[in-house]
Structures are given as C-alpha cells and as structure tokens.
Amino acid sequence: MHEAKSQLSRLARLAWQGEEIVICKSGRPWLRLTPYRERLDRREPGGLEGRIRLAPDFDTDDDDIIAAFESSRLYPGDE
Length: 79
What we know:
There is one protein chain. By secondary structure, this protein is of the alpha+beta class. Helices cover 28% and strands 14% of the residues. The longest helix is centred in the N-terminal third of the chain and has 9 residues, at 8-16.
C-alpha cells in the first residue's frame, strides 16, 4: 500500500493504458485501480415496457421442479 501511494501517478497511467492494477495490503489484494469513464447514456427504468411478456402461470408452483430440487443432493432435506 505504501509503495502504491508513492507510485500513484505511474500506476494511474498504466491503468489508462489497459494494465490491470491490483493494490495489495499486507500481501493480500485490497483494491483494483481502474480508469474513470463517463457513462455515455443515462439509464432509464422501464425501457422494456410492452416488450416482455410473462406467461399467465409464471408464478404458479411447478410440482415436478419442486420435487426435483427436494430429491436432489443440492437440497438433501432429512436424510
């Protein structure tokens, strides 16, 4: 970390050149230095309204899928 402080300008230049810069503290990865980039387009919620349709039974339980999970090793239940 101390070395990174004294080399920050050089590390920033390398990051802008495409290098992956990871700063460590006590020998462990601590920070990733990446260039700041302006967002080109502003995100607006609801942009897909009217384009996505869900099946009428989207939220209903599917007994076959529930049984597959409950009998699998991922969800062992009471064994």
